[in-house]
Design goal:
mainly alpha
Length: 115
Amino acid sequence: MKLKLPRQLRRALRERAEQTGTSRGEVVLEALKQHLETTPPIAMEARLRCVESQLALLQSQLQIGEVAVAGQRDATEARKQAYQQWLRHFEEHPDEIESGRDAHEMAALKAATAA
């Protein structure tokens, strides 16, 4: 893997490699190994707890979203049922339809205003 390192860091790696008589790659690996060995497990546990809490938050938001979608589906179904009921009503009572409109328009208007 190739990385574009800042000039100052490249210089420091080269100097360290020359001092120890090793390659720059070995210097980097040694630094990473030392960092892992000296990083206290508590810090890693704290990071893990942070990730777990973020995951729990995302899961709860997902559940809330699923409930909202279910509520929207219920509302859509209720509007469809109201439309069907009003359509039947206006088909049975055509004298209640406003002039210039048909049963479908009246049913849609009534269902929309009732919701």
